[in-house]
Amino acid sequence: MMLDVLCLMDPRFAGGTASAVATDIGAMLDAGLSVGLCEVQSPYLAKDPGPRSKVMEKLVQDRRLHVFPAGSQQEIEANTVFLHHPMTFFYGLETKVRIKSDRAFLVAHHMPFRGDGSLQYEPVTTSHRVQRDTGLAPVWLPVSGLCRKHLQSFHPLIRLSPTDWPNLFDVTEWGSEREVFESKNITIGRHGRADPLKWPDSAAKIRASLPVLQDTQIAVMGCPKDRLLAMGVELSDWTLLDFDQEPVPAFLNRLDVFVYHFHPDWSETFGRTVAEAMLSGCVCVLDPRIKATFGDLAIYCEPEETAAVIENLRRNPQEARALARRAREAIAKRHDIRSVTDRLAALTSGRGEIAPASKAFASPVTVVRKTIGMMRRREYLRSDLGVGR
């Protein structure tokens, strides 16, 4: 059987990557395409419980989807293949897969450089390992313009698509019947995986990013509670929920302001939780490092400036509501799942056409230096810690 689309992914992924892949696949199935999911496993997620995350377990229940479990030796044929998340393939697959296709795209849900400038994966080696483990020669497909700049640093040693593949959303699942700042009491908060890197690096900055203000509640879903307590963060006045304890749209519909500041070492490739908040009608107050993705649809500030920003929004509720409406309209227009067939057609029409050179994140000299540093770190891990991560 020749599939229209085949997606390769480690089904243990959770959070934004899993949600993005599940939404893509659902949109393609709804468009009448024949779609397969080839489950693979990589040492990258060796410490994660399996066999699947909650999002992926729900996805494989869709009877329209052709599922090829991890370890399957069946040869799969597809017109177009999407290989999801470069870290999976940089670490290599535990079992090789047999795939026949003339068109393969490696979707970069993660940027190669960390926030501190060090490398977390090396794209040239990743491409070679994809070909070794799947037989496919991938074209890199960034999910944002910022990710494209990172990948451009490795041009011309990798093939880079001229188009991006930003996240899609079923916009009918997101929204709120209420408007923000309708009452004296407001709620600020955030949600996401309980990863310490998705939070600022000090107790003072964390508290400043979610300030205790008069007539203001704080709600957080997905919090590395033990880590934050060890840092000295006072959490007694927060409403805390576990990651995915309740449906994300329901949680976001309680917020007036969505706040997101993160660790200096973290690099946010797209920011799916931010887009979800915008679609839900929240005003977003964000780390300045993701302005390249969301532009004038949010307010950007350092953690210490958050309280002043929120109080200014409270004093100007009409402006706050106008910003929230404009952000929702823009994200809905750019990322609606109904665009999937047009995007797929635009992506595949070039049959491997490569993007022209553009401004890169790092110079060739920097790339070589960072690659050597990464190789030394990985050798240390293998020799002294007995692991390959």
Keywords:
389 residues; Rossmann fold; six-stranded parallel sheet; 14 helices; 36% helix
Arithmetic mean of pLDDT: 91
- In terms of per-residue confidence, which ranges show pLDDT below 50 for 5 or more consecutive residues? 380-389
Number of helices, where a helix is a run of at least 4 consecutive DSSP H or I residues: 14
- How large a portion of the residues is in β-strands, by DSSP E? 15-25%
SSE pattern: EHEHEEHEEHEHEHEHEHEHEHEHHHH
Report the CATH topology name of the largest domain: Rossmann fold
Q: The biggest beta sheet, please?
A: 7 strands, parallel
Number of domains: 2
Helix content: 25-40%
Terminal Cα span: 37 Å
Sheet/helix structural class: alpha/beta
The CATH architecture designation of the largest domain is 3-Layer(aba) Sandwich
